[in-house]
Structure formats: C-alpha cells, structure tokens
Write a structure and sequence with these properties.
The chain has eight helices and 15 strands. It is of the alpha/beta class and about 250 residues long.
C-alpha cells in the first residue's frame, strides 16, 4: 500500500487555500489533515502532532508564516507559499524545504512536494544513533577527497567534483558532477570540511565551488544548469574571493 503523508495548509485567503487543497487532492500520496486560515490555529494543530508537511503562506494577520515556523518545537517539513520572492532566502535559513511564488502552478507544486517526501523518506531511513558519527566523519584536508555517510553507507566524494552544497532541512545535498548525495550534516560542518581556497558560502544555506562557477550576474551565480542566490551580506566578500583566485 502506498504510504501517505499528512499535509496542513495555511493561508488567510480562501482562493489560495482552495487551490492548494485541489492540488493536494490530485496527489494520491497526500492526505490533507486540516486547512487553516491563520497561523495560530495552524500552530495548535501542529502541536497536536500528525503533520508531515506544512504548506503555509507568509504574510498573514496576527502571526506570519515565518513567525509560525520560529515558534514550532517540532517543525514539519515546510514549504512556504508567498507572492513575494524576496522571502526565499529567509525561508531557507529556517530550514524550509522550498518556497512557491504565487501564482502557483501544479507542476511547481508537485516538485516541492517531491522534495518534501524525499526528505521525509531519507529521515526515516537514517538511523537516529548516527547523529554524532555522521557529523564528525572527516578526512584530512590535505587529501583531495572525504567520505560522507548517506543512505547507510560511506561514499567517497572528491572536492573538485562538487558543484555546490545546499541545506535540505536538517541535512545537506551535495551536488556533484554525476550525482546528488543527501547526507546528515549541516552547511556549517561542510564549510569547515571543504577547502576554503576553493569553496565559498554565498548565503547561509549554500556553499559553491568557486572553480565551477560559469557566470556571476547581479546577485546570482550560475553553475551548470543551476542558478544560486548570493546574499547581500556575502556579496562583497564573495567578489573578493573571486578576485583572490584571479577569476575576475
């Protein structure tokens, strides 16, 4: 029998709630347990347990979606829905798995849900006892590789094959030339692991391999087909890092 994931929808606008509900009903792996019009009611429902995925608007009366997430003791895998793309960076800093900019297409909704389910499944498959073990697995920086624990096995990763590293809830995704590895690490830990002369943290949730950058335009970096955001706080030091490498 197909596993089903319990979804809570929060938005203060009825048309937005109805749209998300209609999308969720089209996906057989989802079960909508509640639809709320404000964050306070949503918080009470989440505190009762039984919510796997939270779909919440950001700008709401009384308590915003961002404030809601900050108050939760046990945060479900969260997807922000918003009319304002400038909230994306703050969302990632709150371990939000994705953000959907209104108007939301069904295709984009499906992509976000797939990411959420992927994280939930990986969390269930990863033994709880490996928290310290996986966070302290290291190799000497003088080598050209390190090992990372993913899906209950140790995988060798070469530094020069990494394109970038991004936060993925309580995990990180290592995007390499040929694969995407999901590992129980933090971006802070990865920042310490990776050679500082070749890797730079362009915002709280993303570390890029400077040698793999193809374009820098405004606050965006392009690496292969990926476009990544540079935070305003990090932009000047990032440009200095590129200059130090002789790239610009």
């Amino acid at each position: 029998m197909e596993e089903r994931y319990k979804v809570l929808i929060v938005d203060d606008e009825e048309p937005a709630r109805d749209l998300l509900l209609s999308y969720a009903k089209k996906m057989t792996q989802l079960e909508v347990v509640a639809v709320e019009s404000n964050a306070l009611d949503a918080k009470r429902r989440i505190d009762q347990g039984g919510v796997d995925i939270l779909l919440t608007d950001i700008q709401m009366d009384d308590l915003t979606g961002i404030d809601l997430v900050k108050t939760l003791k046990h945060q479900p895998v969260t997807i922000f829905t918003t009319a304002y793309s400038e909230y994306a960076l703050e969302g990632y800093e709150l371990d939000v798995i994705d953000y959907l900019v209104k108007p939301i297409s069904f295709q984009r909704f499906c992509r976000a849900i797939d990411k959420a389910i992927e994280l939930i499944q990986f969390t269930k498959e990863t033994p709880a006892e490996n928290t310290e073990e996986t966070k302290t697995t290291t190799a000497p920086k003088r080598s050209d590789f390190f090992f990372v624990k993913t899906n209950r096995k140790m995988v060798k990763v070469k530094y020069d094959e990494i394109l970038f590293v991004e936060s993925f809830g309580e995990y990180v995704k290592l995007h390499t030339e040929n694969d995407v590895l999901l590992a129980l690490q933090t971006t802070g830990f990865m920042e310490e692991m990776l050679p500082t002369e070749d890797f730079f943290r362009i915002h709280r949730s993303c570390i890029v391999n400077i040698n793999r950058i193809e374009e820098v335009e405004g606050n965006m970096v392009k690496i292969e087909q990926h476009k990544l955001t540079i935070s305003k706080r990090m932009r000047d030091s990032f440009i200095s890092a590129l200059a130090a490498k002789g790239i610009i």
